[in-house]
Amino acid sequence: EEAGVQRDRVVPAEEWLQKWAAGKTGFHKERGHPLLQKYLDVLVNGRSGLRIFFPLCGKAVEMKWLADLGHRVVGAEISERALREFFSEQGLPYREEAVPGVPGARLLQSTCGNISLYCCSIYDLSSAIIGKFDGVWDRGALVAVNPCDRQRYASLMISLMEKNSSYLLVTVLYDPNKHKGPPFYVPEGEMRSLFG
Ligand code: SAH
């Protein structure tokens, strides 16, 4: 198995928080991702006022893009710092509250209500808490999940999708023997079996 070297790697939450604290966030794209621009029509598919989910959202500027287009955005991220930086860098006022049923989780929501970012592990969320989505932008998310958690992650994502939702997934192609990840190399066959 080509990706066998990465299979047992686990990145503790603490390691992500340290990356944010140290500003080691080379994955962040200040100007947004060109692939979202390119495939926006596929995601939106002629619909308006969609609910769009950003798993492992970081401070992705694309959340602001989609909100500005009239969609409602929900994100999940363990780093509170990332979420605060998102709102301050985008110049958006926000309020903060606890999340009923999820001890320790916080909801940071833009004052106008169209961007709701949950500060907790994605595995603490479910459709009962955050509802279902018409679209998902998965960039730096599946590839950042620990390889041993992929099945759990994919099942959760499937449970969050409305019937006609579209899921844009960005992965990376490289030799997993040369880099320990994240981002992890997810072979195409595995993506197909995860999402069916
Ligand atoms: N999607 C973003 C960030 C990618 S980096 C972008 O495109 O820029 C992956 C992010 O996932 C990091 O910000 C990390 O803090 C967060 N993360 C890692 N494990 C998580 C988990 N279990 N739940 C929620 N967020 C997590």
Automatic annotation (TrEMBL):
Record organism: Nothoprocta ornata
PROSITE patterns given in the database record: SAM_MT_TPMT (PS51585)
Record SUPFAM superfamilies: S-adenosyl-L-methionine-dependent methyltransferases
Protein name: thiopurine S-methyltransferase
A biological-process GO annotation: methylation
Gene Ontology molecular functions: thiopurine S-methyltransferase activity
Keyword annotations of the record: Cytoplasm, Methyltransferase, S-adenosyl-L-methionine, Transferase
Binding site for S-adenosyl-L-methionine: 16-27, 56, 77, 121-122, 139
Domain of life: Eukaryota
Top-tier EC class: transferase
Subcellular compartments: Cytoplasm
A matching Pfam family: TPMT
Reaction equations catalysed: S-adenosyl-L-methionine + a thiopurine = S-adenosyl-L-homocysteine + a thiopurine S-methylether
Cellular component, GO, one term: cytoplasm
Gene name for this UniProt entry: Tpmt
